[in-house]
Amino acid sequence: MHVGLSLTFQNYQGLRPDQEVWADEVRLSERAIALGFDGIWATEHHFTDYEITPDPLQFLTYIAGLDRNVGLGTMAVILPWHDPVRVAEQVSVLDTLSGGRLVLAIGRGLGRIEFEGLRIPMEESRERFIECAEIVLGALESGVLHYDGRHYQIPERRLRPAPRASFRGRTYAAALSPESYEIMARLGVGMLIIAVKGWEAVAADMARYRDSYRALNDGEPPAPLANAFVVCDRDAGRARELAERHMGNYYRAVVEHYGFTRESFAGTKGYEHYAKISNEMAEGGPDRVVREFTDVQVFGTPAECLEKIVWLRELVGAETFLPVFGYGGMAFEDVQGSMELFAREAMPSLQALPALVVAA
Predict the structure, then answer these.
(1) Is the CB of residue 135 less than 8 Å from the CB of residue 153?
(2) Integer Cα distance of 31 and 166 in angstroms
(3) 189-201: b (≥16 Cβ within 10 Å) or e
(4) Structural domain contains residue 357
(5) Cis previous bond, 243, omega within 30
(6) Burial of 86 (0-12, 13-18, 19+ CB in 10 A)
(7) Are 104 and 72 in contact (CB under 8 A)?
(8) What is the rounded distance in angstroms from the CA atom of residue 314 to the CA atom of residue 335?
(9) Per the structure, how many domains does the chain have?
(10) How many helices (H) and strands (E) does the chain have?
(11) Could you tell me the CATH number of the domain that includes residue 172?
C-alpha cells in the first residue's frame, strides 16, 4: 500500500506568518521522506487562512528536487481556475523533471471566495471542469493540444515538453456530489476520497462509480486514493483529545471557508448537492457536524490507527492512504511526533500489505 504525506498548509486563524507555515510544511516533508513515506501530496487553495497553497505543482517541483525517489501528488489541481493549456504544460514539465513520479488529482472547486477572486463564474464550474479535463488529459495522452468547446477554443498545438508517459491509471479526481461520479467515470479517472462522511456511505458511492466506469470504459477503474486526518499517540486518550480539538478546529475552518451554514450554495447551478448539505449542517448545528467529521478520521494508538486504516482500505478498495498530520493549530512538535510514531509503528505494516482483490 502506498502511504503519502498529505499537507494542508493551514494557517489556523492567521496566527502565524505565512512563511513560518510554509517552512514547517517543508520541514515535515523532509522528515517524511527520511522516514520512508512513499509520496508528498499538496492541495490547492487561495486567499484565506484555511489553506495557503495556491500552486501545488510549483511546490511539488521543489520537492522533486529535494529527493529523486519520493512520489509526488496533487490533491487537487482545480481545473476551472486555470488555463488548461498552462496546466498541461506545467504537469508535463514536472513529470519530465521528476522522471514520471507525478500522480495527478484534479477537481472543480467549491469555495465561492476563490471563484470570485480568480474571476471565474462559479455557475460554470462543472462545464469548465469537464472541458478542462478533456483538454488536459487529451494533451497528456496524445501530446497535442486542440479543442473547440463552449468555454475553450484551442488551435492545434504540440505539448512541449512532450508527455513522458501516459497518465492513464495515475489521474484521479476529488468528488463529493453524486452527479460527479459518472462524470469522473466518463473521463476515465480514478477517485480521490476525502474523508468527510461515513466510510460505509463512501463504499456505496464507490460501488456506483465502479459500475459506471465499467460501463463506460474497457476495463477496471484505478484503485481509489483515501485521505484522512490522523493523530497517532501511545496514549489513546491523548490521541482522542488532540483529534477532537484540532480536527474540530480544522472543520470549523472548512465550514467558514466554504460558507456551509450561510446558504452560499442556494441557487448556484451545479451545486445543488452542497446546498442540501448546507441546509443539513444549519439544522444540525456546528457541534454535530464537527463530531461527525472527527468520527470518520483516524486517531488512537499505532495499533488502533492501523486497524482503522486496514478496515477502511478493504471497505472502499483503496491502495493508497494519504494521512494529514498537521491542521487546526496543532503544535509542530505534536504534528511531528504523531507522524514519526505512525511511520515507525503503523506504516510498515500498511506498506507490506498485498494488493486487494476488489469484487465486481
Answers:
(1) no
(2) 30
(3) bbbbbbbbeebee
(4) no
(5) no
(6) exposed
(7) no
(8) 27
(9) 1
(10) 13, 12
(11) 3.20.20.30
**Mean pLDDT across the chain, nearest whole number?**
95
Please give the Cα distance from 115 to 132 (Å, whole number): 16
Flag whether 356 is in a domain.
no
- Between the alpha carbon of residue 86 and those of residues 26, 104, 234, 298, 326, the distances in Å are 25, 15, 46, 37, 30
- Euclidean distance between CA atoms 313 and 325, whole angstroms: 19
So what's the pLDDT on residue 358? 61
Q: What is the pTM of this model?
A: 0.96
Task: Please enumerate in sequence order all residues whose Cβ is within 8 A of that of 82, keeping only pairs 6 or more positions apart, or say none.
Answer: 132
Question: Which residues face 145 on adjacent strands?
Answer: 157
The DSSP result for 294-346, as a single string, is HHTSEEESHHHHHHHHHHHHHHHT-SEEEEE---TT--HHHHHHHHHHHHHHT
What's the CA gap between 94 and 89, in Å, rounded?
9
Cα gap 84→133, rounded to integer Å? 8
**C-alpha separations of 90 from 161, 200, 203, 253 in Å:** 9, 37, 33, 30
The CA-to-CA distance between both ends of the chain, in Å, stands at 21
- Backbone angle region of 164, left / alpha / beta, with phi > 0 → left and psi within -120 to 50 → alpha: alpha
Inside any domain, residue 359: no
Is residue 360 situated within a structural domain? no
What are the b/e assignments for 136-161, b being 16+ CB within 10 Å? bbbbbeeeebebeeebeebeeeebee
Range of the domain at 288: 2-351
CB 278 within 8 A of CB 289: no
359: pLDDT strictly greater than 60: no
Name which of 223, 256, 252, 229 is nearest 242 in CA terms.
229
Say what angle helices 56-66 and 18-35 make with each other, to 10 degrees: 50
**How far apart are alpha carbons 265 and 90 in whole angstroms?**
31
Under 8 Å between Cβ of 105 and 72: no
For residues 69 and 85, what is the distance between their CA atoms, to the nearest angstrom?
28
List pLDDT tens digits, range 151-168. 999 999 999 999 999 999
